Amino acid sequence: MVVFVQLCRVNGGNCSRPKGTNFGAPATCRKQEEFYGRKLILADREEVEQEADNILKDADISDVAFLVVGDPFGATTHSDLILRATKLGISYRVIHNASIMNAVGCCGLQLYKFGETVSIVFWTDTWRPESFFDKVKKNRQNGMHTLCLLDIKVKEQSLENLIKGRKIYEPPRYMSVNQAAQQLLEIVQNQRTRGEEPAVTEETLCVGLARVGAEDQKIAAGTLQQMCTVDLGGPLHSLVITGGSVHPLEMEMLSLFSIPEASSESRSIDGL
Amino acid sequence: MVVFVQLCRVNGGNCSRPKGTNFGAPATCRKQEEFYGRKLILADREEVEQEADNILKDADISDVAFLVVGDPFGATTHSDLILRATKLGISYRVIHNASIMNAVGCCGLQLYKFGETVSIVFWTDTWRPESFFDKVKKNRQNGMHTLCLLDIKVKEQSLENLIKGRKIYEPPRYMSVNQAAQQLLEIVQNQRTRGEEPAVTEETLCVGLARVGAEDQKIAAGTLQQMCTVDLGGPLHSLVITGGSVHPLEMEMLSLFSIPEASSESRSIDGL
User: Fold this and answer.
1) Residue in B103, B117, B252 closest to A112 by CB
2) Quick one: A88 and A194 in the same domain?
3) The Tetrapyrrole methylase domain covers which part of the protein (chains A, B) (predicted)?
């Protein structure tokens, strides 16, 4: 059996860089290979999107497994893989999995009260998108919470290496709740400058989540302002912007993770 | 270790009646007991909601496992359990799982385009709630799909047995996509009678899903009218009402499951 492992956040999973991964190509995941007792082929987003046929090669005569983080259907990329397989007459079986899309419920906010999920990307000097903020606004107007998936940059090339065609990659970057909150506050300021009434303010109740599902998972509930400084440790992080109304039971759950006064430290979920 | 198994749909999971379950109390799940090699205590919704302290009894000195279908945080009941455990100083660990809330993506509709989830309950002669329909309307206005969780009735007593205090239970009932679609069409008719413009019509594109995640999973895409007659087989069923706009890639995925002309038969997901 040929086993591909996808490395990226397209599926809304609690994706993390496989330990021992070498970001030069061909890359392998040693820890996972030991676990599965098989050779694994690391497929970055680029490969999955541009070389899908390579993944499906020989899948009609032998088994091919494609492992992702989270649930496979968080990503259009995977629907595309299924459509290609179908056209090639290759049957498939999907094994579903937990995803940040539902595991986020561990913070105490009810899943059925989440509106459309948004993604917050790293801003650059020239590219500072604010469009996702409209979805947050719409969600809040409908009393729904917003799950914000935070950007992951892996296998990035510097402009110089890109131009010179050097396959040298920058170290991976994972957006933290602090960075996301700071970008959000900048958008709030920009809206005020434009004379608009921002749907979110420094005082909006938010929840920062880190390494959901892992033993050292951390959750912190506080204002958007507090999210700028709360220390949640390493990646992967997610941020929730609560809707207008928070149910008393939700509030009681959030209180388990509330940021202590005069502190930017959050409580661990099992620090009870 | 004491192991409780919850039997109900409160968690939005693809819940099904454990084989070998005896609905008289105390009930056991033989198949699961063989699998886990432990005695299991079947906890119905009533017990979980009313006797939570019984579940947490001795959890401070020994391990107690509480198994649910789907992800634990689909249900306020489980947040309540965690709050009780916290107050009792009992630490806990949550193992997340796939849930119909994200596994529904297997039909090809994108998860981030789902709005608020609704529940459709069995109507009685005297109780025919239509309120959930407003949420479907709001979702469609926002271009979002609606996942409808269909009612499950287990451990029900007939009025006579209830009055006479007899612990005799009716056979379990699981709402089918057909039943849900028929109730929806009745609501549409009621709205027309009241001179309202229904947010959904006989022609609205819907998706019926059955036994998601199981090998004999079935998915059927068609109009709400077709959902009244499509044969998806045994429980558990879920229904999706699509939002106004369906992305071309979503449409291509749905076409894999489209109901053949002049037939109420759906294609199996692996009937390629």
Assistant:
1) B117
2) no
3) 46-226
